[in-house]
Amino acid sequence: MKKILITGGCSGLGWEMSQLALRKWYEVDILDISLWDKKLSDFPAKLQYLEGDISQISADFVETLSQYDVVICNAGISLSGDYIEHSAEQNLKLMQINALGHMELIRLLLIHQKIKDSGNIGCIVSASQMLPFPIALWYAASKWALDSFAWALSSYLTWRKISVSRVYPGPMPTAHVKYYGQEQKRDQKSRRKVQKIAEKSLMWILKRKKKIYPDSASKLIKIVSPFEWILAKLMYQTYKQNFHR
User: Fold this and answer.
1) 55-74 as b/e: b if 16+ CB within 10 A
2) Residue 242: its H or E element
């Protein structure tokens, strides 16, 4: 039976991808710092929770892991508001979780032969990576870093035939919205939106597509992204209205 590792898999997009992978008969390992609102007693036999902090991944921890057909780098946090008010400690933690931790995880997985040849790696970036994003500068920087890493990694792993996909989901009604002054919606319609993005993301990762735009918002942003000077003004207005009083 094939096996998949998903970081940050106990909530939001990661959780929906884990449930979809189970339905596709994968064994699923979730690496997350917390169970959040989940209970281990509710986990089926093919779903294993691995408690761990992606920002502090060690070789000893990775040695205990299984060998995977698919690895999805999904864990992430944000930090919104006025960039100059954020401390170096806050920014470093964000960068460690969103980018540097995943870079180290992949490095250690490769060293210890934990990713099968001809396997798949998926990096969940963000559609905001295609926009100037003054609302969350270090978040934007971390996603740029992960995106560039994944692009270079795809070339590095060519000889092993391991595909590397970069996924650019648009806004989703997950816990992530708290960073942008919104309250998470928990109705069925909102969850279905996240499920659809999860379905498209996982499907195209398995089909080895390099760049994945899994929803209408990400596809639209891709189309308008060349118009940088217009987007810069629009995004500043959004920032000014919501954060810069």
Assistant:
1) bebeeeebeebeebbbbbbb
2) helix 228-242
Give me the residue spans of the domains in the chain. Answer: 3-242
Cα gap 173→16, rounded to integer Å: 13
Closest CA to 167 of 198, 137, 130, 211: 211
CATH topology of domain 3-242: Rossmann fold (3.40.50)
Q: Helices in 112-227 by DSSP H: which ranges?
A: 137-156, 188-206, 216-224
* Segment 6-54, tens digit of pLDDT: 999 999 999 999 999 999 999 999 999 999 999 999 999 999 999 999 9
Dump pLDDT digits (tens) for 79-107.
Answer: 888 888 899 999 999 999 999 999 999 99
Range with the poorest average pLDDT among 128-137, 152-161, 222-231: 222-231
pLDDT at residue number 177: 47
Count CB neighbours of 77 within 10 A.
17
| Matching residue, tokens 């060998």 | 67
Q: Is 123 helix (H, G, I), strand (E, B) or coil?
A: strand
- Match 């299984």 to its residue by tokens: 66
Structure tokens of 193? 């939106």
Q: How far is CA 95 from the centre of its chain?
A: 13
Containing H/E element for 164?
strand 163-167
